[in-house]
């Protein structure tokens, strides 16, 4: 039987899983998995994600409740300045003992496997590896922040953005104005320049 590959995201939970009513506290950092957001708003792969909470064993699995905190890097949607903020998300996740891959590996009958496989598609279940010895929290970290991150962020709610004519930062130069009052003049000037170029 192939050994399960343990990763940076596996947490030993064999003891808490030995019988219902056990608790294991977690307070440590894990590297952010790939695929959370993008360069506009995202968590860089490998950035430290703090996981604080506990695993509680019930009859058919482990429940994790806690807070995941990740450093989010973003670019202000109005003024392009780089932002870095911590996002903290409350999570509750279920890690069932019956796991499709695990059951197949262990050679158990498929009856339970089919039921669980249907539920897994809901995306609310997270994997236990090696017959319930380890919890794999990589998908939980990814799902949590992929869902939590906004598509855009602002450096501050009233960010004034950049001057549409010259790109000056209007937060730094609130009094910034151009002599041309009507922006349509700009469009006309551009058109004129274009026509002149074509004539050459
Ligand atoms: Zn801004
Ligand atoms: Zn300007």
Automatic annotation (TrEMBL):
InterPro entries named among the record's database cross-references: YceD (IPR003772)
Pfam families: YceD
Top-level taxonomic group: Bacteria
Matching PANTHER family: LARGE RIBOSOMAL RNA SUBUNIT ACCUMULATION PROTEIN YCED HOMOLOG 1, CHLOROPLASTIC
Protein name, per record: DUF177 domain-containing protein
């Amino acid at each position: 039987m192939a050994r399960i590959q343990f990763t940076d995201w596996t947490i030993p939970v064999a003891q808490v899983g030995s019988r219902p009513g056990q608790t294991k506290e977690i307070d440590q950092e894990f590297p952010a998995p790939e695929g959370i957001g993008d360069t506009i708003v995202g968590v860089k792969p490998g950035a430290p994600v703090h996981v604080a909470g506990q695993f509680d064993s019930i009859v058919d699995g482990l429940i994790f409740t806690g807070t995941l905190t990740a450093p989010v890097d973003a670019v202000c949607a109005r003024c392009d300045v780089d932002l870095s903020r911590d996002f903290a998300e409350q999570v509750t996740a279920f890690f069932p003992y019956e796991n499709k891959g695990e059951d197949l590996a262990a050679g158990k009958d498929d009856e339970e496997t089919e039921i669980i496989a249907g539920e897994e598609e809901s995306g609310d279940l997270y994997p236990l590896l090696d017959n319930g010895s380890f919890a794999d929290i990589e998908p939980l970290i990814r799902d949590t922040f992929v869902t939590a991150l906004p598509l855009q962020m602002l450096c501050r709610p009233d960010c004034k953005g950049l001057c549409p004519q010259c790109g000056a930062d209007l937060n730094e130069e609130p009094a910034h104005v151009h002599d041309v009052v009507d922006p349509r003049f700009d469009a006309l000037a551009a058109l004129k320049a274009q026509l002149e170029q074509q004539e050459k």
